[in-house]
Amino acid sequence: MRITTWAEYGVICALHLAKRTELGPVNGREIARIERLPGDYVEQILLRLRRAGVIASTRGARGGYVLAKPADQVSIRDVIHASELETFDLHCVSHPIEEGRCSAEHNCSIRPVWVMLQTRIDDVLKSVSLADLLHDEPTVRERVGLPAAPARAKPGLPILETV
């Protein structure tokens, strides 16, 4: 699975809105500026997120975008699915090699693996909410069941050993 720019920017934009829940609506240009993302992409992603019901918009001088639901009720799958329109592309459906070979009537031993992979990816993405991502990286790693990240080397010159 490849995480596309649409999906990544969608998560960044939704997380931005989750972080500023108490501050009220914000417009797309401001999100793009703060997150250092292309404004055109952000506007298109926000439109997709709004159409999917992930975010809501208000018009006017103080208008902009807010999350449509509390951050703990918005899964990463919701955001990616809205941004990208799918979380995992079943290639045999979207880009069949041959009409007959990739049709549902054809007995394909590979298709169940792709379907299982799609299901597992969706399950993982459903299990993580925007509220989970409001924490620092070590906390998020723990919440999603990953081991602690290895300690990073401190910036500066490498330490040379004498021989």
Number of strands: 2
Give the SSE string.
HHHEEHHHH
**Residue share in β-strands:** under 5%
Major β-sheet annotation = 2 strands, antiparallel
Count of runs of 4 or more consecutive helical residues? 7
- The largest sheet has its strands arranged as 1-2
Please identify the structural class as seen in this structure: mainly alpha
Mean pLDDT: 85
Write down the CATH class.
Mainly Alpha
Q: What would CATH call the homologous superfamily?
A: Winged helix-like DNA-binding domain superfamily/Winged helix DNA-binding domain
- At CATH level 2, the architecture is Orthogonal Bundle
User: Which bin fits the share of residues in helices?
Assistant: 40-55%
Uncertain stretches: none
| Cα distance spanning the termini | 46 Å
Rg result? 20 Å
Sum up the overall morphology in one term: globular
CATH topology: Arc Repressor Mutant, subunit A
What is the count of structural domains?
Answer: 1
Task: Explain what this protein looks like in three dimensions.
There is one protein chain. This protein is mainly alpha-helical and 163 residues long. It has one domain (5-143): Arc Repressor Mutant, subunit A (Orthogonal Bundle). The protein contains seven helices and two strands; from the N terminus they run αααββαααα. The protein has helices spanning 5-19, 28-35, 39-51, 76-84, 91-94, 111-126, 137-143; strands at residues 55-58, 64-67. It has a two-stranded antiparallel sheet with strand order 1-2. α1 (5-19) crosses α3 (39-51) and α2 (28-35) crosses α3. The radius of gyration is 20 Å and the shape is globular.
